Fold each of these.
Amino acid sequence: DGGITQSPKYLFRKEGQNVTLSCEQNLNHDAMYWYRQDPGQGLRLIYYSQIVNDFQKGDIAEGYSVSREKKESFPLTVTSAQKNPTAFYLCASSREIGNQPQHFGDGTRLSIL
Amino acid sequence: SQQGEEDPQALSIQEGENATMNCSYKTSINNLQWYRQNSGRGLVHLILIRSNEREKHSGRLRVTLDTSKKSSSLLITASRAADTASYFCASMNSGYSTLTFGKGTMLLVSP
């Protein structure tokens, strides 16, 4: 079955550490997205990528970095510069950027030790 | 920045009843989308309605869009316990290619 796989499901980070969240899709979608969800809140866009080797900052990119070296993969690194990283992180993809529905993974919950 | 705002924040109904959730937005849009999220899971796309459409149906779901009032509603008819979830609207603003999500409505359907 086609879909989006996020790993790990739960992740713990120590102060000062960088951690990388994995997102892989086999839907042959060009566009991919990373969102952050805090309790009782909607989703906020961190980064998005329209195509391989291209990505743009979203509304809350500070303290995060991404890469898009392969169409299938869009990893997110939460750096030590992100002072409040505890959240639920969701990856999504769409056939192309724009007027398309987005398909979501099941998320990674990141907590600080 | 967050634009869509859902109303109510929470809704509790009995199985078989209809559930109506509303969404308001502030600027002109290309389309508006509704998603469902079960607890601890990712979002699932329900319906996309374009700015030149007024109503759309999918099974027990009915979405309306009123661009003059900058609002949309999602109606779930004959609700089931399995419909228990959070429901989010997301707008794609004119001139932009990404979605802006609201804070969601938590729906509880009791057997």
Amino acid sequence: AQTVTQSQPEMSVQEAETVTLSCTYDTSESDYYLFWYKQPPSRQMILVIRQEAYKQQNATENRFSVNFQKAAKSFSLKISDSQLGDAAMYFCDRDDKIIFGKGTRLHILP
Amino acid sequence: DTGVSQDPRHKITKRGQNVTFRCDPISEHNRLYWYRQTLGQGPEFLTYFQNEAQLEKSRLLSDRFSAERPKGSFSTLEIQRTEQGDSAMYLCASSLDRGQFVSYEQYFGPGTRLTVT
């Protein structure tokens, strides 16, 4: 079965520090998209960042960036200068099979 | 357009009753997805539509579940003879399939929380 794996159920980071959330996936496709979504407590899921598999360059959105290793099928999310508002569940998603990982709960310590 | 909306936001029902949820996607979006999410878990795919056509259904979607998108706009998800195991958050999302350039970036609604007693 083609899967998405997030191996860190929970993580904590001090405010203003940097944290990296990991995601690995399985696919036989060559072109696909990868996403990180954020789901704050009791709020709806929103897109954080998107990576197109055929692009070598890692995607960046302000404090959020990815480390995409296509050969290793790895897609980690780096959050720099962590803020209290970053506390949420983070889900990794591979689009073509509409598969989400089980999520990583990120705690921000003031 | 204010995004994806879902109605109701909360539903409490007794076991054996039927329930129906509605999702209104972003107006120009031609794809619509339904997911189920239980506490502490990621969304589990149930089904999706491209316009009015239901293109894929998960094995999670038992014969008690049915989804429609009659005019390619809003969608309904009906659960018949509800069971306690159906208690979950039901999420709807929509996306735009632009043909050659397809990113499947999904926009989620706030969800409908179902509690079956």
Amino acid sequence: AQSVTQLGSHVSVSEGALVLLRCNYSSSVPPYLFWYVQYPNQGLQLLLKYTSAATLVKGINGFEAEFKKSETSFHLTKPSAHMSDAAEYFCAVTPGFGNEKLTFGTGTRLTIIP
Amino acid sequence: DAGVTQSPTHLIKTRGQQVTLRCSPKSGHDTVSWYQQALGQGPQFIFQYYEEEERQRGNFPDRFSGHQFPNYSSELNVNALLLGDSALYLCASSSDRGSGANVLTFGAGSRLTVL
């Protein structure tokens, strides 16, 4: 079975500051990991995915995440926050290629302080 | 290029009623998955359809059923509605072919309120 834990249901950062959203996973097999973003009244949009290639994954809108097997982590970062980054962020895991049954975390709401 | 479209966007039902939600996948996609997102929670997998068959199912009761049509569109049916079924229902489509595997495109959802 797979699961993800997102630490911090709410995170606030100042505009221009580093964004760090935490995700730890549990998986009995090598996982595929994802970060999705959800803006108000919209569906989920894929930010980036890890599929066992490079451990540092770059995504859209300047976000990136690093897969650390020793720490079972897949934290999302962005060097400089923009007001438009305010949204809900979800980490998700699947057991591997071809399996699209995503298990999501409970989400982290990111607020940007002007 | 239209993405995933869902209808209706909002609906209100009463306990015990039945509801049908509809989804048209992104052009070129042949697989449809449904997720339930309760308020303040992450989405939970309901089931997935491919080639008009249910391929995977999450931990949801039989009150939740679905269908996929030859044009790849899909319906989610929920019978005997409970208050706890109130949620945003998300449809996601994907392609079984090539590098797009595992990448889901989500619709904006259908928000169901059960009174």
Amino acid sequence: NAGVTQTPKFQVLKTGQSMTLQCAQDMNHEYMSWYRQDPGMGLRLIHYSVGAGITDQGEVPNGYNVSRSTTEDFPLRLLSAAPSQTSVYFCASSLSHNEQFFGPGTRLTVL
Amino acid sequence: GQQLNQSPQSMFIQEGEDVSMNCTSSSIFNTWLWYKQDPGEGPVLLIALYKAGELTSNGRLTAQFGITRKDSFLNISASIPSDVGIYFCAGQGGATNKLIFGTGTLLAVQP
């Protein structure tokens, strides 16, 4: 099993550009989520999904969209990147919404 | 947003020393989790706790679910250089029933 995979590993964007961060898991987990990690802030929940076709907002959803068309994939879209979205983004999956398994992260810089 | 109070923020110790860290919350939690994050990687689950008073070990690591359900503790015995990293607590429960992360404890171990 590859577990949770994320692409790309690094990305640099200009303000206003859009992009999609990819996340996939091969563990047949129903629950998937996106977090951002900023210095001194821990991990903050952006969006989550409890199954294909179902998504909901987390603590910091503004500026991000998600969709869940399959159990395996949960992409995160930045509609119009802003410098405040410079962060490390982690995708996670779990059978329930507690013991989450994390991907390796995407390091995003917005200039 | 709601965050857990995790302390200490950082620890610089000698190899062989024991380590203690804790998390406290104003809310009652049903689950406490402890994660470790190595540099450039995603968090990895160390220990999961589901019952007040529960004491669980994973090798040299021992974690406890506080009796009040508002705190949890992690101890590392006889630290080694590979223990270096950031340790996060996470609690699930409270008003949102979502997983909430602490701000992390940075551990440095000098050989």
